[in-house]
From TrEMBL:
Pfam families per UniProt: HATPase_c, HisKA_3
CDD domains in UniProt: HATPase_UhpB-NarQ-NarX-like
Transmembrane regions: 45-63, 75-92, 98-126, 133-151, 157-179
Phylogenetic lineage: Bacteria, Bacillati, Actinomycetota, Actinomycetes, Kitasatosporales
PANTHER family: NITRATE/NITRITE SENSOR PROTEIN NARX-RELATED, NITRATE_NITRITE SENSOR PROTEIN NARQ
Keyword Secreted annotated: no
Histidine kinase/HSP90-like ATPase domain location: 325-412
Annotated protein name in UniProt: histidine kinase
Annotated InterPro entries: HATPase_C_sf, HATPase_dom, Sensor_HK_TwoCompSys, Sig_transdc_His_kin_sub3_dim/P
Record's catalysed reaction(s): ATP + protein L-histidine = ADP + protein N-phospho-L-histidine
SUPFAM superfamilies membership: ATPase domain of HSP90 chaperone/DNA topoisomerase II/histidine kinase
An MF annotation (GO) of this entry: kinase activity
Keyword check for Aminoacyl-tRNA synthetase: no
Xref: Gene3D superfamilies: 1.20.5.1930, Histidine kinase-like ATPase, C-terminal domain
Length: 414
């Protein structure tokens, strides 16, 4: 193979990508395709103005040292002019952090009053760029400091003390800048984690609602199958017994008409929810409002203190879908009370008449002592609210003034 046509190894490109001219141009902000920076906020203006004032203050402090050095007045004036230009360049630190820091290294070598601008530029570089660039710039500054003090000795400090002071000051600026950078990255990470947690919580709530819809659809499927089977049996009886007495034919026709009407009602309800991919083959009858007494008796046998106040004149007249929803609300309320407030008295109240709706309330007192944590999905109340909403009603829950907890639902009946 012709060596001129060989391509460089991919791992070399990955490992030394930051040394390529294109990557270095991006770090220097010289890439023409790089998107523009956002406008400065009020806080950015305050910080930039503070950095400019700091650079000017340090430049004025060192200007006094320049005035006391044994150098020609022309060089002293040039030193201060270069320092003033360096302080003005501090306003470019956000746009070109690496370029400004690199440019100020030779500037600070020839101008003592530009030292404040160099410190600000090095700090900005440590905040906005990776450590490898900070190490090169800080290392170049430290390496040039002995030569600088050998050419221009400080009138107040010995040579070794001046060099050590520059090294310590450079390390402190780099360390503080890296600390600020790490803190910013941590805050960004925490915000991203909080957004992910909110997204996951929303997805879990949506999943709980979907599972509740599927459960309701399965229940409606069983009830609808029961009604259609009853309708088919009576229709088959009429087909095979055309000579049956008139009263029996009339009664069978009434049952068929009523079953068809109720089947249509259930079909309208089941269309409004998701159909589950799995069917419930347990064959157990779906609970209704009449099964509340059995549920309460079962809880009492388990050791709970439950008071049932059921003031419904005609429980048989309650629609099956409404009765199932009321049963599930009471069942979930008793389960929560048993888990989170064991030993407290629970009051179950069911009231309603046709035309005004059915009201279901489950309330328990404050738990006695510390309750050990009980594992659970935490989505039961979300599923109950979804049930009540799909049934055309509403559900509210929350802590009571005495430290207990209550669930209250209203379901349409009429």
């Amino acid at each position: 193979m012709n060596p001129d046509t060989q391509q460089p190894a991919p791992q070399l490109l990955v490992g030394r990508r930051w040394l390529l001219p294109s990557a270095l141009a991006k770090e220097f902000d010289l890439d023409p395709d790089r998107p523009g920076r956002p406008r400065r906020t009020a806080r950015d203006w305050v910080v930039d103005f503070g950095c400019f004032l700091l650079a000017v203050f340090l430049g004025l402090v060192t200007a006094d040292t320049v005035a006391r050095e044994d150098i020609p007045s022309g060089l002293a004036a040039a030193d201060q002019l270069i320092g003033a230009l360096a302080c003005a360049a501090v306003w470019l630190r956000r746009r070109w952090p690496l370029g400004l820091a690199v440019a100020l290294v030779p500037v600070c070598f020839v101008s003592n009053t530009a030292g404040g601008a160099g410190i600000v530029a090095l700090f900005t570089l440590a905040v906005h760029r990776p450590f490898r660039y900070v190490a090169w710039v800080a290392g170049a500054s430290v390496a040039l400091s002995p030569l600088y003090f050998w050419l221009r000795p400080d009138p107040d400090l010995p040579f070794a003390s001046a060099v050590v002071l520059v090294v310590v000051l450079t390390g402190a600026v780099v360390g503080w800048g890296m600390f600020v950078r790490s803190k910013r990255q941590l805050m960004v990470s925490l915000r991203d984690r909080a957004r992910r947690a909110e997204t996951e919580a929303r997805l879990r709530a949506e999943q709980a609602q979907r599972l509740a819809r599927e459960a309701i659809a399965r229940e409606m499927h069983d009830v609808l199958a029961h009604r259609l089977t009853l309708l088919s049996v009576h229709a088959g009886a009429l087909e095979f017994r055309p000579d049956a007495p008139r009263d029996e034919i009339q009664r069978a026709a009434g049952v068929i008409r009523e079953s068809a009407h109720e089947a249509l009602q259930d079909l309208r309800e089941i269309i409004g929810v998701l159909r589950a991919g799995e069917s419930d083959d347990s064959g157990r009858p779906q609970p209704t409002l009449a099964a509340l007494e059995g549920l309460v008796a079962e809880c009492r046998e388990a050791g709970m203190k439950v008071t049932l106040d059921q003031r419904v004149p005609d429980r048989a007249a309650v629609p099956a879908s409404v009765g199932r929803t009321a049963y599930r609300i009471v069942q979930e309320g008793l389960t929560n009370a048993r888990k989170h407030a064991p030993g407290t008295e629970v009051t179950v109240t069911v009231t309603g008449v046709p035309g005004e709706g059915l009201t279901v309330a489950v309330r328990n007192g404050a738990p006695q002592g510390e309750v050990p944590p009980v594992p659970g999905s935490g989505q039961g109340l979300i599923g109950l609210r979804e049930r009540a909403t799909l049934a055309g009603g509403r559900l509210e829950h929350g802590p009571a003034a005495d430290g207990g907890f209550g669930i209250r639902a209203w379901l349409p009946w009429g």
